[in-house]
Design goal:
Radius of gyration: 18 Å
Strand content: under 5%
Number of helices: 10
Distance between the termini: 39 Å
CATH class of the largest domain: Mainly Alpha
CATH topology of the largest domain: Arc Repressor Mutant, subunit A
Oligomer: single chain
Number of strands: 2
Structural class: mainly alpha
Largest sheet: 2 strands, antiparallel
CATH architecture of the largest domain: Orthogonal Bundle
Length: about 190
């Protein structure tokens, strides 16, 4: 995307208008440089920064600067890092198990694990991490990959120690090796 289109998309998500607030223009330009014109990154960053102070914007930009490579993963993960623990759990469950499933079924399932699903899913929608289309949960491929990467990083060498397993080969390997470690995670899947 060109500069003007990128600025407009960021502004629609960060300010709920077609242009940035004048006092945020300098910070908006810096955000654009990290998003590199990628619409998904602009939407996620804009939604994450919506309603935040200049100091919060500067803090987010500092965090992105510390990344050795400002890859899309780091931009998307910034929004994930801003979630509370329950929101993170709901997000990771959706990324690993429930993408493409009926929203009402997923809500009932997660509700049975003690989550305040309506609130948690609304936050995920507001952050552009999920959306609902024709009653089904929709998640961009890159956002799902980010969620699954976060889970894989819990224990790179031993999948049995991760909070979630979703790939048949890994589940089979873990069960055959009898290397399953149970954690205090509320979702048994």
């Amino acid at each position: 995307m060109d500069f003007q289109d990128s600025l407009k998309l960021l502004s629609l998500n960060a300010f709920k208008q077609n242009h940035p607030i004048e006092t945020y223009m300098d910070l908006s330009v810096k955000v654009l440089s990290y998003a590199k014109g990628i619409p998904l990154a602009l939407k996620v960053l804009g939604s994450f920064l919506y309603g935040r102070t200049r100091e919060a914007w500067e803090s987010a930009l500092q965090k992105l600067k510390k990344s050795p490579k400002p890859e899309i993963f780091n931009v998307l993960k910034l929004s994930f890092d801003g979630l509370d623990d329950q929101q993170k759990d709901v997000f990771l469950d959706i990324a690993c198990f429930y993408r493409g499933h009926e929203e009402i079924v997923v809500a009932e399932m997660l509700d049975s694990f003690g989550f305040c699903v309506d609130i948690e899913m609304d936050v995920l929608k507001d952050r552009c991490l999920i959306s609902v289309l024709e009653g089904k949960i929709v998640m961009h491929d890159l956002i799902q990959e980010m969620g699954q990467k976060i889970v894989r990083q819990e224990c790179v060498k031993n999948p049995g120690k991760r909070s979630r397993l979703w790939e048949v080969e890994e589940i089979d390997h873990v069960l055959r090796k009898k290397k399953v470690y149970f954690s205090c995670h509320s979702n048994p899947f």
